Amino acid sequence: MSAYIFDKLRELEEKNAYPLHTPGHKRNIRFMPYDFRLYDYTETEGTDNLHIPEGIIADAQKALAELIGADSSYISVNGGTGGMMASVLACCEPGDNVLVASNCHKSVYNGLIMAGVNPIYISPQITEEGLCGGISIRDIFRAFESYDIKAMIITSPTYEGFTCDVRTIADIVHKHNSILIVDECHGAHFIFSDVFPASAISQGADVVVNSWHKTLPCLNQSAVLSIKGGRIDESRIKEAMSMINTTSPSYPIMASVDHARELLSKDKNLFSSYIQILKEARHELAHCKTLKLVNDSIKGQCHIADVDISKFTIMVRTELTGVELGKLLLDKYNIRIELAGLHHIVALTTVADDSKGIKKFVKAITELDKKYERKFIERIPLSAAPVSIPKMTPRDVWFSKRETVGYEDAIGRIAASSVIPYPPGIPLIPMGQIITKESIETIRQLKAAGISVIGAENGSITIVQE
Ligand SMILES: Cc1ncc(COP(=O)(O)O)c(C=O)c1O
Q1: What is the per-residue pLDDT across 269-295, written as a single tens digit (0 to 9) for each?
Q2: What is the DSSP secondary-structure string of 287-323?
Q3: For ligand 1, which residues put their CB under 6 angstroms from it?
Q4: 211 alpha carbon to ligand 1 midpoint, in Å?
Q5: How many angstroms separate the CA atoms of 194 and 190, rounded?
Q6: Is the pTM of this model over 0.90?
Q7: Could you tell me the CATH number of the domain that includes residue 351?
Q8: Are strands 151-155 and 179-183 parallel, antiparallel or unpaired?
Q9: 176 CA to middle of ligand 1, Å?
Q10: What confidence tens digit (pLDDT) does each residue in 177-200 have?
Q11: How far apart are the C-alpha atoms of 104 and 425, rounded to whole Å?
Q12: Within this chain, do residues 242 and 310 fall inside the same structural domain, yes or no?
């Protein structure tokens, strides 16, 4: 018998690979100078209660709202996942039409099931190199003109650090008396510098969820939901947050958010020196040709409003796949990255990074860039309808009987779970949608090109039983 998880973590500790991934504290003691064992408390005299905060937790949430520029902020100890589910539950009722960017995280899809709403999917634009961009403003206009929409949900920034034009989207949404919910899980750090894209709250969003553990020095699972503008019933938000949070919330998680807020808002030098390191690293990476850093020049294309410079999104234009590059970085350079796709990788940095770690990454990419020849990468066009309505709602699909069948037998049937090629991570067939002959053909092409297609493994797809 072994302590399986513990032993593995001890092994990783010994290998000490440089972490260009979440959680954002990067195990850096300077940003987490405390022993969690001593701070693992429960609701007792003086420690307040996350579900009815009146003391230290209420004060911490108030300070968060002030920093974020929100009317109110609420801590989630169930990550951005909990925050997104609570947003849908608090803002929508069964039968409401909700305009959902199809590149939303699965927590949003799960929220749709729980709330029993009718989703209308809107597809983001896809860049020339196959990454997910922003949402077309014209498509949003059309959707609002065609349907009575209670709320719209978007992801901004994407995993790769691209934001939507939240200001314009919020204006359209509000003109139609609707609510804008923004999954800003990858952008909790935006509030700390103008060098990063403007925060969704500052751009008119009504509900915003930030995973503090992703891009700030906080423990995994820490997130903050914020509201602004008075368009939503705050008591519903409080109740929904209480639904998604455990009744034994982790004080170390809550304390890590509170500590990061205090530390980073007091010591402005922390972000200014980090940003200097980022700028230098990006300047050096700009010389690479086969391992091409995605930079500001992508702004304005495919409705991308801005680019987060903390993310090193690198297009792999060689015979290597992104996955192979990720493996090389780990095996040869002892660097662990956040994401490896077929033709790109994402290395995630935060204020808690060590300049030596970032330099080590830049050196590795520069070396590998010289080693591999440039190769033309052929893309498989992923055509999704700009706006589509599934045949069955996610909730009806969830409660239906399902069966798993081969690709051919799935044609004309209703998908019981979303079929998602990765990258870019947008459902080709959202759950509840009819599976067409064309989409099966695209799945075959994608698989032949080595792209993983979630929900279409082993030549089969799960469908709703007739
Ligand atoms: C876009 C997006 N939203 C939400 C989440 C969920 O956030 P968390 O991991 O904090 O639960 C993720 C997680 O990767 C994500 O990528």
Answers
A1: 999 999 999 999 999 999 999 999 999
A2: T-SSEEEP-GGGTTGGG--EE-TTEEEEEE-SSS-HH
A3: 79-81, 84, 105, 107, 155, 159, 183, 185-186, 211, 223
A4: 7
A5: 7
A6: yes
A7: 3.90.1150.150
A8: parallel
A9: 28
A10: 999 999 999 999 999 999 999 999
A11: 9
A12: no
